[in-house]
Specification:
- By secondary structure, the chain is of the alpha+beta class.
- The chain contains 15 helices and 13 strands.
- A 7-stranded mixed sheet has the order 6-4-5-8-7-3-9, sandwiched between helices. The protein has a two-stranded antiparallel ribbon with strand order 1-2. The protein has a two-stranded antiparallel ribbon with strand order 10-13.
- The chain starts with a helix and ends in an 11-residue tail after the last strand.
């Protein structure tokens, strides 16, 4: 297989064979020998050495490098390595590669702006559910009696066995918004992976909660995997840089991130019409009705994703969140 065919085959495996930018990204992060090793996966070091006719020690060294770059993932139980599974995993992992060249980050930025929205829409057709889900900020759920543990940031963190924090790969790539970067909290397996790669640092539960509060105050949206089992991450996302929210807000309107089970409701008797919530809502779910002393916030339920950020900035505590979707709205983990 020629060098050109190698990178085309890798791109084809993640349904990105028509993207010149993705093929170029792969050339930047993997040389020809590494590309052949990736295409031979899955397999243990011994199996991959056999299939590529290379010495085992040489293959082990190459696998360590591929793991560090974010191109190869290893199962602790079987010792088998696999190639990145999709373009988002490739994007997120290589963006956090400590030695990532500027050329790679600039290429990812160009691809995100030019191709990501339409790519997300294509992915939507293959997925039974959005891969990510919004978690409401804690203040939005203060008066709720039955909050599911996997939609409560504090409970997720309190129940975690290991926690790490990494930079947000999307803001590392783009960074146009100027919001905090080291705010992606990794949970359990996600934390172990980040620490092993050297892309994250271990933190305690107190610091994790401090990061969550900082994110909420900065206007970042809590996002996690869309299952009833949180064992990987709580990202803190902005609509300017982060690929998931960009897909939701794009013209194509890809449903890449599911809303929370909650929806904002305004107590008009308490609302003072300051319009702070309008500025905070990224999804156009809030508007103002009336003028002067009669001005009140109005919620569009079709647009509200239940993130709760509007409640963070409401000075009169006029915004509460009602349960709008049943518990089984969140898919069960396989």
């Amino acid at each position: 297989m020629s060098e050109i065919d190698l990178y085309r085959e890798m791109a084809d495996r993640i349904m990105m064979g028509n993207s010149d930018d993705i093929k170029q990204a792969l050339r930047i992060v993997a040389d020809e020998g590494e590309a052949r090793l990736l295409l031979a996966m899955p397999g243990t070091a011994e199996q991959l050495a056999d299939s590529t006719n290379r010495p085992v020690e040489e293959v082990r060294k190459a696998l360590d490098g591929l793991f560090h770059k974010g191109l190869a993932f290893v199962s602790g139980s079987s010792g088998k390595y696999r190639m990145f599974r999709d373009v988002i995993q490739l994007h997120d992992a290589t963006a956090l590669w400590p030695e990532a060249p500027k050329e790679l980050l600039e290429l990812w930025k160009r691809w995100t702006e030019a191709e990501w929205a339409s790519t997300a829409k294509v992915f939507e057709g293959f997925l039974s559910n959005p891969p990510q889900r919004i978690i409401p900020v804690e203040i939005a759920l203060e008066d709720k009696q039955q909050i599911l543990h996997y939609e409560n940031v504090r409970e997720i963190i309190e129940n975690a066995k290991k926690i790490a924090v990494t930079k947000c790969p999307c803001r590392v790539v783009d960074g146009k918004c100027g919001l905090p970067v080291e705010v992606c909290v990794q949970i359990n397996r996600g934390a172990e992976y980040a620490i092993a790669r050297g892309t994250g640092r271990e933190i305690d539960k107190a610091e994790a909660m401090q990061i969550m509060r900082k994110a909420e105050e900065s206007g970042l949206v809590h996002v996690t995997m869309n299952t009833d089992h949180t064992d990987h991450y709580i990202c803190n996302c902005c609509p300017d840089c982060c690929v998931g929210l960009r897909a939701v807000r794009s013209a194509e309107g890809a449903k890449f991130v599911a809303p929370s089970r909650y929806q904002a409701a305004v107590d008009e008797d308490v609302c003072i019409g300051c319009e702070s919530c309008l500025e905070r809502c990224y999804f156009g779910a809030l508007s103002a009705k009336g003028e002067g002393e009669d001005c009140k916030a109005l919620v569009n339920p079709e647009r509200c994703v239940g993130c709760g950020l509007c409640a963070v900035v409401c000075p009169s505590n006029a915004i509460k969140f009602d349960e709008a979707r049943p518990a089984d709205f969140i898919p069960a983990s396989g």
